[in-house]
Amino acid sequence: MRLLLALCGATAVLAGPHSGSTFAGATSTAVFPPPGATDTSVNTYFPGPEQVGHAGPTPTGDEAWVLETAPAAPEREDVYPLISPVQAQTPLKKPAFNPVRSWGNLSPWFSVGDVFGLPNTSAAVPSGCELTQVHLLHRHGARYPTSGSGPSAFATKLHGVANSTGFAASGPLEFLNTWTYKLGAELLTPFGRQQLFDLGSAFRVKYGHLLTGFTDLPVFRTTSEARMVDSALHFAAGFFGVQQYQSTYHQLITIEDDGFNNTLAPWNSCENALNDISTIGDGAVANWTQVYLQKTVPRLQKYLEGVNLDAADVHAMQDLCAYETVALGYSAFCELFTEEEWKGYEYAFDLELWYDFGPGNPATAAQGIGYVQQLVARLTQTPLTEFATNLNATLDGNNVTFPLNQPIYVDATHDTVISTILVALNFTTMAANGPLPIDHIPKHQTYTAQHLVPFASNLVGQVLSCPASHKSHKKESFIRFLLNDGVVPLTGIAHCSENKDGLCAVADFVKGMKERIAEVDYEYDCFANYTVPWPDTITDGRMHR
Q: For residue 468, what pLDDT is reported?
């Protein structure tokens, strides 16, 4: 209590009306468990459930398979327990525009409906078909910002002024007078952990019946970064159960670092994913930021004396809205911006993703092609024997760490990796209106980051047994892909034709993927010394000679 009173008294002195406190912009952190609290000598007082026993009745029911049995597919809509900007302003109403869905790859994932162009289907299994196998590639959950990125840079700038010449914020920016930076770096937030647990439990409800086809424990894969391991474990806890997951599957953790081939972190074995070629989108984003924030900077500047705002600062304030919301549950920054400004912010992510990690970058198809090779191996149950891309011969050539007989495959990765894999798979409808202009938002935008790679984004390959035609009762194996519950047309893949449900015969899909693998020149695209022309007209993630 004395400490609290002292702090309040100090704040009253340091922060008069509309004046910034000296601690404004400072970084604030919390540590748990408290230092010295992990006393193992008392562990015997807290035995686990196996030692305690007395668990009561434990009969299990049958596995769920809602995608085949229900009249409609379940959809993800809410961001509970976060307070979205819409909820903060109008808690009893839901306006048509929701800023949370304009945060690009910082948006929490949601069911995207028919945005990919197939309005007459859904995630539910098509009539007459049965699920036989599923391939899940998912992103980690919501995280803190990348080390040294815009949000922390803005906080450092504000704190520097607060401790030198001082500043004064008023009106909608008045909260900056006592605002501190409470975000960590790169780790999952509590909401991010919830996202992956929810994704795992929902996946069990949708695909749990496929577990009956296992003869050995499943092998799921993730990479070694802390947020990747945490995401994989929270998914597993949701999918298998908290008390069961540690003994009911194998978690393969692949090394994500320089010098290690890894299809789930492919940039480490692709030189042109680490040099200037990998950042050609940064200039596009910088240009667009100046365009869409041209009126915003002076509008906010009039409420802030002593700190000169620029477009990078204001863009970082939009970042802080997204990051504080997914980390702390609410952010005062969200209320500063208009619908038009949020749409401009959204497009900045589209540009970055397109030119750095998507169809407009010449090294992206090469980065994603290793996963495509793994997918073909799994679909055909054919061991991998050639390792000229980012495949890992030690792990991918071993049937223990890379089994080929699983009804369910689960791989965890990053947003930028999912985007390269989408390019490698040749999902061309997503790139239909590219190349993207850098001075305006195009009409009928088909490449939107919040639809493709939001936090906990999930790409699902459904393998189904379906009638070969509407006139035939003979069953054939088909595949289709759902990205965040939206069915993706496969018309960009050789041998796959238009289908209202996004289906392609597995044999045709495999044939098309083998042709795609053959046309991607991994060595050239990843290691050749070339210059990307500007304007950049690439739309297939390749550097054509």
A: 77
